[in-house]
User: Fold these one by one.
Assistant:
Number 1:
Amino acid sequence: MTSNNEMSCRNILVIRPGALGDTILTLPVLDTIQAEHPDAIITFLGNRFYRDLIPSQIHFEAFDDRKWLWLFHSEEANASTHKHHFFDKAYVILNRPEDVVRNLKRAGAEAVHSCASLPEHGRHVVERLHEGLGLGVPERQPCLTRLAGESRREIIWVHPGSGGRSKCAPLAMLISLATELSRITGWKPVITAGEEDAFLQELADWKQTVESERMALLENRPLSELCNELGRSRLFLGNDSGISHLAANLGIPSVVFFTITDPAQWAPWVPRDQMRIVDLRGQDLSGLDIGQKIREIEGFIRIAVR
């Protein structure tokens, strides 16, 4: 049963600065809070680069805007001067939330819930965030389908990069996989890469890959363009990265490769039958059998082809 105090919440603050994947993994938290407080004004302090991913009914603010710097200040005296930033309730997702929690309380927040942004071993981050903040864990579902196009496109979206070289499956394997799947399905492979994937240009296979007539390249494109151009692709192939979370949450059947991170913690929060995890941890990535990998995902591909 909801208490009178819970029912009276009118202004709620949620704080979670982070990269693309972190932001997308926070969207279920926003949905849960909104469902529990449908009449509240919810403000989300996040990364300014991903504001277009936040639902329109959520008020977005950039966490690094000057007017919010007082929240992260370690001196207690500063917070008491910001009582005009009043919130009935606040949810803080930070690895070290102590200063922010203290400053919110000093500024008049009536209830502040906090949770570390890193999950416990073996627990998915979405489960960890909800339970740590006292919220019920929601069902898995894609949360960005509103940004996808209206009709399926005969495209295999390939994102061979990630936040670091060690998180990437071999480029040759992904391209060979995309090429073979293209031969089987007739779909066009489209490769995406951003600024954080610059290391791909140092790989011997990159130049040949992007100059191939069988491949198309979208490089350094804004998220809105990726959603418009590729949001209704028939299949996604990629590593554990923010783009994989984007693609899966657009509703695209996705094959995601994990080389060092734990999929039990970091896989996209979408229905399991929409996604196939290929766990490469502890394997010799230089000697992977492409044919075997295709056979491993063959059943999933058959479903995606329908």
Number 2:
Amino acid sequence: MWSDLRHRIRALFRRERLEKELDGELQFHIEHQTEKYLGLGLTAEEASRRARLEFGGIVDVKEQYRDSLGICFLDRAAQDLRFAVRMMQRSPGVTGLAVLIMALGIGANTAVFSVVNAVLLRPLPYIDPDRIVTLASITHDAPSALAQQVSIPDFQDWHDQSSSFEAMAYYSSRETAVMIASTAEYARVAVVSPDFFRVFKIGSVAGRILADEDVKAGGGSAALISYRYWQSHFAGDPHALGQSLSIVSASWPIVGVLPPGFQFPQDADVWVPAVGPPGERSSQNNLVVARLKPGTSLEQAQNQMTLIAARLEEQYPDTNKGRSVGVTRMRDEIVGSVRATLYMLLGGVTLVLLIACTNTAILLLGKATSRRREVALRTALGASRRRIVSQLITENILLAFIAGSLGLLVAYIGSKSLIALAPSNLPRVAESETDRWVLGFTLGLSIITSFVFGLVPALSASRIDLNESLKQGGARAVRGGGPFGMRGLLAIAEISLAVVLLCSAGLLIKSFVALQDVALGFRPENVLVMRATVPVRPSVGIARARQFFSDALAKIATLPGVVSSGATMAPPGNVDSTGIYLADRLPPRAEWASAPRVVLSIVAPGTFQALGVPLKSGRDFSANDTTDKQFVAVVNEALVRKSFPDQSPLGRTIYCPFDTLSPMTIIGVVGDVRQRGPERESMPECYMPYLQHGFNGATLSIVVRTAGDPDSLTTPLRRIANDLSPDVPMKFTTMEALVSANVATARFRTLLLVIFAVLATCLAMGGVYGVISYAVSQRSNEIGIRMALGADAGSVLRFIIRQGLMLSALGLVIGLIGAVASTRAVTSMLFQVRPNDPSIYLGVIFVTGMAALLATYVPAKRASKIDPLVAIREE
């Protein structure tokens, strides 16, 4: 076997020498046989003739030998390739158009696949990433929808009682004030338990990682920084180790730098050890990650954690009743919210590719039929059908590879555009790149598409009537079939695919418009948002934070152009804290598990006016609502409807276990705000004055309603903050930008699907135009005779348009049937829109009809201007 393989390889790369050896071998056999006949007494001429007759055809023997080595196949492939290049040069217009169409289809698919590959398919950049899981506290009645954070006592029990995990750790993270020397800025700081880095099997590139001793040492013991943070803030200087970061008024020496690319969780910049008491079992403020032991399946771990949760439920009914544990692979947890969107986009762009293939097939079908006389001549000269199909498919493969190469350029530009358009919450999208998988995808796509769009034209061109084709000229031999031949069927197919995309895009457009028009409960226009954090410990220096915000708000109110101002823990559209509330009385702890959920918000006086949240009854907070006065609260209408139906809540008592269990008197009711974005209904919400509550009171977002452009106040606000406290970091945005970010995912998928639908419709109508134009060119004699017999230009125009519209109507009907079935896949992405909305289907019918009329009118108008005398003379 190996000697045969070496012989074949030698035959490929040493062709000339092999041919010489083969000629010598054949000549030796003939001469040997000739000498044999000479010995029998024959003449030299007769001996030579008999030897050659006995040996057979030398050319046939050579061909058989080359076939056995696979050389003839390469010769034919090279010959087909050269011929394909010549044929493309003979029709550059068709070739260029086909390459452009396919490059767009392949490039769009490759661009979307590069994002899908980075987000969904590529493993996480850790050792054995499939063994990393997340653990969440969930409720029995809705485990998938109500995944929650975990309390440290619950985590400790999970850790101590489970045997499925190699390591388990809890963590939390948030943007907070970090100071290097005298410079204050925001950085994402992760607070982690000791086993956190064991879960990821990650080490340091400089210094060391956190150790158990760092936790025992208490606050300010050690900090790790990301490689990106090391480069951007210390220029990669090794002497950064030992320098200190000031976080929450404590100094944390840098003891290590983590490897490039590791920034879990949420693009963290700094990691510090979790210190302090574990807190109460009801305080669910942390997330949990773990690494499965080798050989332990996800199902085994889930079963064990379910049993542990059941034991804790019995042991701690006050806090754990109705709670279980959900175990999920971390990659699924990270990409769960965007998986459906990306697969929908990949499906949409695949339909575009199929339409592009169909369109190209129509182009090549016209080109192939015009070559029937050429094919007939080759057949008459002995070429087999298989040989002809092989030649035509070679042309298609060459066309596809050229389109694929150009498609890579389209994909590069497209992927950069996708990354720019992608919402900020799309995980791992920045990792999109043209790696070997993307290149392999493009190569495979080019090969597949070459057969998809090339096989039908190749088979059509190879099925000919030899006698008929040789008797007629090339143009006359292709008559017949009309628009409902193979080209018509292809056009119907691409119209139906385009209709499916149009229906899906229409539903998303209507959903996005509804999302934009929904009442948010506040007015985001002309509102500047300045997030600021006073670097103090909440339990110690909260007075300084209150003083900073009070002084800042007082100075901001005097600025020209300021209409009103306030401050809130989390601007509308973002929820920073949730919990439970208890009305009128503080029941025993055992009853808390059934208490209703509530959004907890800390605000300053004037916030409702600055945000445009209507005060329905009662009063707003004032500067007199301080800790030495009766604690007060403002609630929204959703809370009133739930707990005080048909009653006035003013003067009633409410308890919110936030940072105190002190009773709060309800002093006002405000309108509902969509706290979690426009897609979700308002939850009950309890607002508390920042002068009475310390938790998170050191970080507030100042909101300023302006008479003009809110960005014009950025500099004055920055100056006021710096004058009051230079160690306070700030971040600026606007409420309109925050609202826009809340609908970024919906906007992203809607925009892309609309682009795909428009591109698909243009390609489909191009196919209709090509089919009708071809039919008109082939039936010009018939049309001329009709006109000579009395048909006027109007009747010819209507006749051709009717044929084009019949073609489009068939595709429309098939497409609508497909859309009814396929649009249900986008149901979860729709807002206040049903997947079978009749207005969408009527709109698609109108758009498709108008586009088909336009695509048909141009060739129909050309047909109506045919000169009957010229047509009859040609006939």
